[in-house]
Amino acid sequence: GAVVSQHPSWVICKSGTSVKIECRSLDFQATTMFWYRQFPKQSLMLMATSNEGSKATYEQGVEKDKFLINHASLTLSTLTVTSAHPEDSSFYICSALSPGGDGGEQYFGPGTRLTVT
Amino acid sequence: DAKTTQPPSMDCAEGRAANLPCNHSTISGNEYVYWYRQIHSQGPQYIIHGLKNNETNEMASLIITEDRKSSTLILPHATLRDTAVYYCIAGTGSYQLTFGKGTKLSVIP
């Protein structure tokens, strides 16, 4: 199956700093990538949809100025958590849409665990 | 995405078939049924998807009822490594997937 990587796999940062998370599709080109967030013992929640070469679409309640998304190429999307606070501590997961005539398939990265102290 | 209903948890003996049900009675005609699983602290893993017909791949089989209101994911010979949360999602894969709470499958030795 298609492979999606994320970097870093975990990060600890101090409150007020910014953190950038990278999502790469390794063996296919993805015009669309998605960013999810998962809190402990909860399901994944979609944060935003990232389209190559255009602005991301954010879900209701997600601050676009706080969670900056850039999808500059067909294999790379980045999520920057700006001015991070402890409540931003979570498991961040990206997915990349592999084009297909029968609905397409989303392939997920391994996730990035962010801890803000 | 159509809402899906899954049992919160299931147990399965190692080596036996695991049959995970999913109800999606409000699924629309252009929505597929997707199955993903998430092993603890990892990203979800794609398993299988289908529209109307039953599907099989190296991981599992997907049985969709004729009225498409429900489906069953079958893991033919469950192993301990299949212990995970399984998500059934009805939607168009080209757009965002809405994850519910899924079924926590425990494979027991």
Q: Span from first to last CA of chain B?
A: 36 Å
H and E order of chain A: EEEEEEEEEEE
Order of helices and strands of chain B: EEEEEEEEE
Q: How large a portion of the residues of chain A is in β-strands, by DSSP E? A: over 45%
Described by the principal axes of the CA atoms, the overall outline of chain B is globular
The largest beta-sheet of chain B arranges its strands as 1-9-8-3-4
The level of helicity of chain A is: under 10%
Q: How many extended strands of chain A?
A: 11
Largest sheet of chain A: 7 strands, mixed
What is the percentage of strand-forming residues of chain B?
Answer: over 45%
pLDDT averaged over residues of chain B: 93
DSSP, total strands of chain B:
9
Largest inter-chain contact set: A-B, 27 and 24 residues
Looking at the structure, what is the overall shape of chain A? globular
The tally of helices of chain A reads 0
Low-confidence stretches of chain A: none
What would you call the structural class of chain A? Answer: mainly beta
What do these coordinates show?
The complex is a heterodimer of chains A (117) and B (109). With 117 residues, chain A is mostly beta strands. Chain A has strands at 4-7, 10-13, 19-25, 32-38, 45-51, 57-58, 67-73, 76-81, 90-98, 105-108, 112-116. In chain A, the strands form two sheets. In chain A, strands 2, 4, 5, 6, 9, 10 and 11 form a seven-stranded mixed β-sheet that branches. In chain A, a hairpin with a 6-residue loop joins strand 4 (32-38) and strand 5 (45-51). Chain A starts with a strand and ends with a strand. Chain B is mainly β and 109 residues long. In chain B, 0% of the residues lie in helices and 46% in strands. Chain B has strands at residues 9-13, 18-23, 32-38, 45-50, 55-56, 61-64, 70-75, 84-91, 103-108. The radius of gyration of chain B is 13 Å and the shape is globular. The chains are: A mainly beta (117), B mainly beta (109). Chain A binds chain B through residues 1, 4, 6, 32, 34, 36, 43-46, 49, 91, 93, 95, 97, 100, 102-111, 113, and chain B through 32, 34, 36, 38, 41-46, 49, 51, 87, 92-102.
